[in-house]
Design goal:
rod-shaped; about 375 residues; alpha+beta; about 45% helix
Amino acid sequence: MILNCPECGHKVSDKAPVCPGCGIEISGHVLICDECGKAYFDSERTCPHCHGGRKSKPEPDVTKAETFAEAAPIVVTPIKEDVSEAEEEAPRVAEVVAPEPEIVVPMKEKVAVVSATPIGQEDDDDDDSEEGSNRSVFFISFIIAALILATMLYFYKDATDKQQAQQQADYAVVDSTEKVAEDIAEKQEQDAVATEEIDTVKPQLVVAKGEEKPAEVAEKPVEQQEEPQKEKPENVTITDKEKQTSFQSVRKFFLAINSKNETALRSSTTEKLSSFRGKANASRIDVLSFMKDLYQADVTNLNWHLGQASSVKKVVTADGKTEYRITIPARRVIERGSIKSDRKFTVTATTTADGKVKAMEIGG
């Protein structure tokens, strides 16, 4: 029980041996006035605050009722032997009987209250309630985390599917474009061969019919009549050095694309190209557009790999210029994050004597 020290007024427990404020003894030496409820020393006969009422010991602690009951007989005052029996019994009755109602009654009331509510039960109930609350919070947090994870996985899968679909569409467009370009180039080559054959056979048909040769044909020397046939590769000898020069011209073109170097790519081609990927009379702008189309936003790495030239032919044009027609197998490796694609192509190019690409077709 907490009370005010009768000496200095400091807050102190009735079980404390001495007051921490003034050092006076407290335990067993302090009484509580029944009238005003204030504490005073047991050496005083009446309450110094209200000068009346009965004096009693401080109410014992519920948890230590038995200890307090054992300490109750301390109230008895020893009696000397030389006192008469009448005088001896009077103080004993006054000192022993008077405190009994004050000590026993409060103890019974306190014990009854304690028996109604077991010590520690309230703390156990609080612990159970707190534990149940913690479990609920953990369960709700787990559900929320699972929902967030499922949502993230859904959007990731959806983005991956869209990316794959876009790649397939891009590949389909590239394949279609390259196929068309290859068909056009093949058609142009066939037309050129057919035209040359017609020009070669036509004079013979005229002579076979007994008709006179055209004046311009008859007047030309034999050497001039065979001039157009110089464009046929089989009639021109090509050296290993010329083959290597033509191959290096094409190699410089693809190295510039691998390094994404626009300046090097411009210098690897002529200013005007006779054809490029199916487009006649192309320019360097078309070549740069081709490189930009390859490097899409999701492309992390791109490389062209050239094999050994399968065919290199030397051609002398009508105006006397030398060109080289080369065919090279190639591989294109594109990396898009963790996705890697590897495709094979056939590169057919025309290069000039000074090492520049004049025409190019890329077939799948």
